[in-house]
Amino acid sequence: MKNLSIxxxxxxxxxxxxxxxxxxxxxxxxxxxxxVTGMAEGIPSxxxxxxxxxxxxxxxxxxxxxAERGGKKxxxxxxxxxxxxxxxxxxxxKKVAATTTNGTLAISKSAAADEILIGAFVNLDAIISYxxxxxxxxxxxxxxxxxxFNLEDSLFAGAVAAGLEGEFELEDDAALATKVMYQAVxxxxxxFLAQSAHAKRLAKxxxxxxxxxxxxxxxxxxxxMVINGEIVLA
Amino acid sequence: MKNLSIxxxxxxxxxxxxxxxxxxxxxxxxxxxxxVTGMAEGIPSxxxxxxxxxxxxxxxxxxxxxAERGGKKxxxxxxxxxxxxxxxxxxxxKKVAATTTNGTLAISKSAAADEILIGAFVNLDAIISYxxxxxxxxxxxxxxxxxxFNLEDSLFAGAVAAGLEGEFELEDDAALATKVMYQAVxxxxxxFLAQSAHAKRLAKxxxxxxxxxxxxxxxxxxxxMVINGEIVLA
Lengths: 234, 234
Hints:
By secondary structure, the first copy, chain A, is of the alpha/beta class. Helix content of chain A is 39%, strand content 20%. Chain A has a single domain (2-40, 103-233), classed as putative 2-phosphosulfolactate phosphatase (Alpha-Beta Complex), CATH 3.90.1560.10.
């Protein structure tokens, strides 16, 4: 049976052996939700970069540049970290370059994996189906918040664990814990997440619309993956 | 209102500000269960040490020396990491020195806190009562397993979070997550934990009796704390 394990924050990634495995990077609020949305809406590719400067350099080459730090758009960039921005960007037909506080770091820290997928509630079932159909062990990599555990990414990891149980061995305690947590609150995800630290931070920024969108399941059927440093569709 | 946060593994302790706070160190299987048991049964003090060599040096000075690595007693020591060993040790009236894989490390990494308490299911209500009666913010420090998240310590953290809710603000997402997890499985703690990675490891070592003991709530009413490098009773 294939194994499923969960890395609760990139700060613990050194404890996960990613070699030969599929990594699923999760940053529900909001980086991976944006990426799934953008790819599903027709952006040709999204290049995740760790530094604001790299993002600026790609902007100079004609990319639409998205830069977010601490939940806000960085001055001088085309857009921040809202899925609705990505929908607009998709209409231009241009490539996107993106840097975010936690999500792009989680992608770069997952580089040792054989494949890196981009997951969020908006493509939950597509991720589950993809993982079932392939043969490798899987590590879910929650982006967390500045190195720490967060609720929304862990809940998504738990949703995948619940969906894969029976076909995958839940290999570590984090998989068991997040699965139980997801099953306990899945009928009121939004209500439960409203208590979370990051939701409270984001609420102050008046982006409830983004949060509602990010917590809607299965809006899209795409599975974006990182190939040669670019996010493209599987 | 006082704040409660949870550090899910000592590997994340640098993200917690312990200064001026009470830390509760948790290593349910089995270090803190042993410590609570030993203190409640009458051991005058337990000195937690990080290294096997330090433990050996205290043995030479007349301490009963407990050393565990990877779940097993280290050769040449008086006892390993079973609460029943600690009950026997209590009958001698001697001091104990102890080193374990995860628990003693969690204690040493909590040194910045104002107070360090020793918690386990066997003294759950005593810990909750103590924390309610004092005035400081609290950080629960789960010992985990070799740096990683584990189920039993997180469940205990969640049990404390559930017990303190209303009087404490659940400050971080880990407190919310572990509380929900505990509430979902509290009626069958043993059944749920039997699935955990560490329980499976320990089951191979034939110490089911220790596990059953560790998962029994409120056997003791004591609150051990670390004072000047020794665990003593509050």
